[in-house]
Design brief:
nucleotide-binding, disordered C terminus, six-stranded antiparallel sheet, alpha+beta, metal ion binding, transmembrane helix, binds adenosine-5'-triphosphate, Cation_Transport_ATPase_IB, Rossmann fold, cell membrane, binds zinc ion, Calcium-transporting ATPase, cytoplasmic transduction domain A, seven-stranded mixed sheet, 17% strand
Length: 632
Amino acid sequence: MLVAGAAGLGGVASNFLGGPTGLTDGLWLFAALVAGTEIALRAFAALRVRSFSIELLVTIAAVGALFIGEYWESAAVTFLFVLGGYLEARTLARTRSALKELLALAPTEVTVLRDGTELTLAPHEVIKGDTVVVRPGGRLGVDGVILSGQAAIDESAITGEPIPAQKQVGDSVFAGTVSHDGYLEVRAESVGIDTTLARIIQRVEQAQEAKAPTQRMIERFASWYTPAIIIMAVGAYAVTRDVALALTLLVIACPGALVISTPISVIAGIGRAARGGILIKGGEHLEAAGRIRAIAFDKTGTLTEGRPEVLTVTPLAGIPALPAMPDEVMPRTRLLHWAALAESGSEHPLGRAVERALPADYVGPRADQFETAPGGGISAQWQSERVEIGSPDWLETRVSEWSDAARAALDEIRKRGETVAAVAVNGSLVGLLGFADRLRPEAAAALQHLREIGVKRLVMLTGDHEASAQRIAREIGIDEVHASLLPEQKLQAIQAIQRETGPTAMVGDGINDAPALATADIGIAMGVAGTDVAIESADIALMADDLGKIAEAIGLARATLNNIRQNVAIALLTVFGLLAGVLANEVHMAGGMFIHQVSVLVVVLNGMRLMRARPARKRHAAPATQRLARAT
Ligand SMILES: Nc1ncnc2c1ncn2[C@@H]1O[C@H](COP(=O)(O)OP(=O)(O)OP(=O)(O)O)[C@@H](O)[C@H]1O
Ligand SMILES: [Zn+2]
């Protein structure tokens, strides 16, 4: 590029100063050969895989110009093409690597405590299980769990959340985050390329390669457009007998700006989203997210915090004590013991709640075997006892009798809007538990915001009973509730919404909502930092546990779609404008190439604007104190 540019300029100088024509043309010929060889080689490589490239158009035009003695045109066209390609590649690389800056956030040195002495190691030298020391103001070099100490940790590198989260013993922390205060000892869980930060960046790079539907369409278009242009140029020559005109047509019709129009926006949009803690899995999902008209929410863990508490414990008459327990244990405690035994192998949030309802030092027996019924409950075997816990509807078919007293107790708990789980031992109902879960503090405002940005329909899908679902729906302002759904019924509900309203997103925890998440046009998982499965299975993964990020993701997706449309418009208008100019005999080859290359750069720069996009995000966050409380 530099040699061709220098030779071309030399030719211009020679021409201007009235040098011999031989010298002037010789310099331009030399420039055209230097810049053109590279273009011709690329055109040839593409032809070998039977693809008509833009380079082919330029090569034909440049060679043709040399044949008719237009050395200046040939030199200018080839040089401008190479220069434009270079600038485009540079800006594209800059856009792609913007995220890599995040990696630079991980420190280059980590302090590790081994056998009571402090060692300074490179992050990848840390071994899983090492104790890593983090001083106030220090950055974490590994993913891990806090062993001692507590600190306010700025996780913005991962979640995009500017407000630090208060973390204490047992909480997970991530490489690239900063401890604002406090001395921490952290047990290393993932190091080097296995950290959440490193994996996010890797995932984003893959996502940026995944083609959007618009991009595929444009590539198909270009594959017949290029040969069509050659035929058109030949036709133009046949009619006008004007070689220069035919060659100019080849140059100005280059689809360069069109081909880059979509990928540049997708790369920038996905990169921008990732910096806000929103992982979008590819151009396809970005486009789909921009078209969302309805959103379905799972209840537990999505609209609520997913940390239910046991509020009501209602043992029924005649509840036995666990075989190993002394007889004086109160019936309430007996019920909790049976429930904890049944839940001992379960991952369900209600199971965790039962565990928390018992004293921290309680160690009960664990089930020998258990079987979960998704959306129903869990059935466990311990020695000769069979214990079952689950929704009353599910358990009703598995117990011998459901007494009037039990029915009255059930209605009572449901009236308060609590989620009920019933417990049976060896086929007899022994008691009922009532649970309540706190709403996410940002839920109501986040849903309101989604309505404001034009999402037509917000729906709650839950396995829970109608009464408790309705209570939560009222409080956060969702008017459509589908309750008592089994996982496959959630899937059918999504299909119905898609038929009635159009493109639908589903927000869920991915535990028992996997089929519905997969069926929705976009599956969104929240609060996934550190959970591999959720990151992998969702179309959009939100690092932070924040419903407000959904509107932000949709806003960014729409901004990207708009940006793509602008780019396609710029590309097409340029080609048509140039075509009119050529037909009016105003535009010639070098000038045409110049304007064409400018249009490519305009498209690239327009795409890059997305990197700085600030989606109109309302801070509907709860006051800081409440948020800190939530994070602990
Ligand atoms: N392990 C369990 N322990 C106790 N109850 C359970 C268990 N699994 C399911 N249930 C009962 O089945 C109902 C539906 O369970 P499911 O897991 O489908 O819903 P969820 O995920 O808790 O709620 P949502 O669908 O709103 O997220 C629960 O409300 C509860 O009554
Ligand atoms: Zn759920």
